[in-house]
Amino acid sequence: MERLDRRLGFFSALPLAMLLAVAFLAPLLVIAVFSVMPQRVFSLFNAPDFSAYRVFFQQGYYGPLAWSLGMALVSTIVLFLISWPLAYGMAKVFGRFTLVLTVAVVMSLFVSENIRLFGWVLTLMKGGLVEGHFRALTGVGFESPLYNVPIIVFGLVYVYFPFMLFPLAQGIAMVPDDARQAAADLGASRWRVLWEIELPLAAPGIVVGCLLSFVLATGALAESKLLGGQSVIVIADEIETAFTYGQNWPLGSALSMVLILIIGALAIVAVTRIDLDTIMGRRR
Amino acid sequence: MSSEPFLRLDNIVKRFGDFTALQGISLDINEGEFLTIVGPSGSGKSTLIRLLVGMEEVSEGSIWLRSERIDETPANKRPTCMVFQSLALFPHMTVGQNIEFPLKIRGESESSRRARALELLELLHLPADYYHKRIRQCSGGEQQRVALARALAFDPEILFFDEPLSALDYRLRKALEKELKDLHHRTGKTFVYITHSLEEAMVMSDRIAIMRKGRFEQIAVADEIYARPISRFVAEFMGEVNLFDVEGTASGGLYGHGVEIHANGEAGAADIALPQGERGILMVRPEFVRFLVSGETADFIVRGILREEYALGSRIQYEVEAASGSRLTIEKLREDRFAGAIGSEVVLGWDVENTHLIREA
Fold first, then answer.
1. Domain B240-358 coded CATH 2.40.50.140
2. Which residues of chain B are in CATH 3.40.50.300 domains?
3. DSSP annotation of B72
4. Per-residue pLDDT averaged across A72-85, rounded?
5. Does A182 contact B88 at a Cβ distance shorter than 8 Å?
6. Contact yes or no for B88 and A187 at CB 8 A
7. CB-based contact, A185 to chain B, within 8 Å
8. How many angstroms separate the CA of residue A95 from the nearest CA in chain B?
9. A98, B40, B125, B207: least surrounded by Cβ within 10 Å?
10. Would you identify the CATH topology of the domain A61-280?
11. In sequence order, what are the residues at sequence separation of 6 or more whose Cβ sits closer than 8 angstroms to the Cβ of residue A26?
């Protein structure tokens, strides 16, 4: 019976597995192969020369990579810090209000990311919603915060907020109330309870949330383009340029591979350190 | 100093919105005592214990520990500790880390923490190699012991227990009850234990407090509560009992519905009397009721028909339907088994010294 179950499970998983293989792994494979091709070729049937990776170092593409990773890191930290109290409230305090909040946050996803970012541009630009009204009322203007690094980080935080909030709330919901109470009863202060009990027990949610936000923010493009006005160039920008204006697919592929390897390694390290099953709801 | 109570609860009221969970609880607990608070679910006993350890705030009243007021002290600053019903062990820590937790919070060195943890493992009959075990790898009884060890590591002035044995199977529960009592003797700590199981309370405690609807119904030693309950509720809560409504008569005696009373005016009957017109409840426990043979007499007599016989192991329980329609329970040791057949007429009797009168408003 159990064997039959397993066989049925295997067969029912097969179509999706094959779809995933084709739709997900095949493009990845193409990119991987392209990345070792000579510069500016448009065919996979060339002798590999790894020149694109040399270009990565020679032309200083690690700069944009560092910007992407750095801003992703900062935005992930900021996201964690602002999401924790809210996620805590959603998981433990708000009760029914949690649903309202969930719907509100999810609804923000109904509007395209680019349109929402344009909204911020209109709000924050010189003569825009904020500065324009302020100047009209007081006669004094001020510089727009747009086209700078902090506003890009703000954009990342704004756009990837749900990806941190929901896993975090899920993680915090897994912390048993009585474990918190017992720790306090045994003398632990609020901070010690947070450090010794809540953070470790919510770890699966924290890791998933941080990983999602970080990975998405590393590959983000629109924030630096629209809000940042390309005041800094991020790696996704360079990849796009290489594939389009540059007409250099092997370079674009090599840049992508570097990014994929860094993020992949990070994801593997993070996921092996936590018990993903618990947050996915599988019973032990 | 001995007149000063160790823990004093002074008129504690707890409200949750419109609902009053505790309506004026007062109690003095002595140092080194094993006090059990017993009550049905919803009686407020869990709320009370949560107030005492600081997980809830009192609405009115005060809590004093060694003449120091503690009801506004947060839980982590109170020298008290609780063993949870769920045990509330930390699943991400090993057995050793769980036990050492309060010591770590206090900033004790790793070596002294470890030494104390190993000491406690031994005290609770757990092998030393459990130190590195995961909580998940421990059985229910072992987890119980780990929770106890962790609480003892905290070295509290008072140890509270919120029905920690209720999830265990019968045999393990019985064994741990005795172990807990033994642990109480060995540590000399003050234990306050909450349960809905009367048996648990009787086995372990020095004193029992019976709780009902947010109030203490009676607080006394187990024997006293068993033999002289203060109300119908306590009498019925404390096991099988036979109760008869009675009323004081003009002659100073009692009139009972369905029971012949021959004890009026006799020696020892003084506390089995009511002023004229006042109502009360006459109580006799099943083990004191005798089957009378013809010619034999007793202070209280009930006639009826033997309806059922149940074997309870060492004892046999009989059910008799009285002429008045009420049912009586009688218990005999197996060696004193009653020979009468089911359906036969029987005469039951018991003596005034085994009878208790509940004066209930």
1. yes
2. 7-227
3. T
4. 96
5. yes
6. no
7. yes
8. 17
9. B125
10. MetI-like fold (1.10.3720)
11. none
Q: Does A188 touch chain B (CB under 8 A)?
A: yes
Minimum CA–CA partner of A182 in chain B? B88
Query: Does the domain made of B7-227 have the CATH classification 3.40.50.300?
Result: yes
The residue ranking higher by pLDDT, B248 or A238, is A238
pLDDT the model gives residue A283:
42
pLDDT score recorded for residue A284: 40
pLDDT top residue among B112 and A95: B112
Mutate to test the interface with A, among B55, B94, B120, B192 (most CBs of A within 10 A): B55
pLDDT at B199: 82
pLDDT attached to residue B267: 45
Structural domain boundaries of chain A? 61-280
Please state, as a whole number, how many other Cβ atoms lie within 10 Å of the Cβ of residue B157. Answer: 16
| CB proximity B92 to A under 8 Å | yes
Residues of B in contact with A201 (CB under 8 A): 90-92
B266 pLDDT higher than 60 = no
Mean pLDDT, range B139-167, rounded to an integer: 92
Q: Where in chain B is the domain with CATH 2.40.50.140?
A: 240-358
Q: What is the mean pLDDT of residues B293-311?
A: 89
Please tell me the predicted confidence (pLDDT) of residue B268: 47
pLDDT at B347: 92
Hey, is the C-beta of B75 within 8 angstroms of any chain A C-beta? Answer: yes
Summarised one tens digit per residue, pLDDT across range A99-117 is 999 999 999 889 999 899 9
Mean pLDDT of chain B: 89
**A185:B53 CB<8 A:** yes
CB contacts of B136 in chain A (<8 Å) are 284
Nearest CA in chain B to A203: B92
Q: Do B75 and A189 touch (CB under 8 A)?
A: no
Put simply, whether A186 touches B (Cβ < 8 Å) is: yes
For an interface test with A, give the residue of B84, B87, B98, B148 to mutate (most A CBs within 10 A). Answer: B84
Cβ–Cβ contact A182 with B under 8 A = yes
CA dihedral of residues B88, B92, B98, B100 (deg, nearest 10): -140
| pLDDT of B325 above 90 | no
Q: Are the Cβ atoms of B105 and A197 closer than 8 angstroms? A: no
The 3-class SS string of B8-38 reads EEEEEEEEECCEEEEEEEEEEECCCCEEEEE
pLDDT at residue number B287 = 92
Task: Locate the chain B residue with the closest alpha carbon to A176.
Answer: B88
pLDDT tens for each residue of B204-260: 999 999 999 999 999 999 889 988 999 999 998 888 899 988 888 877 777 887 788
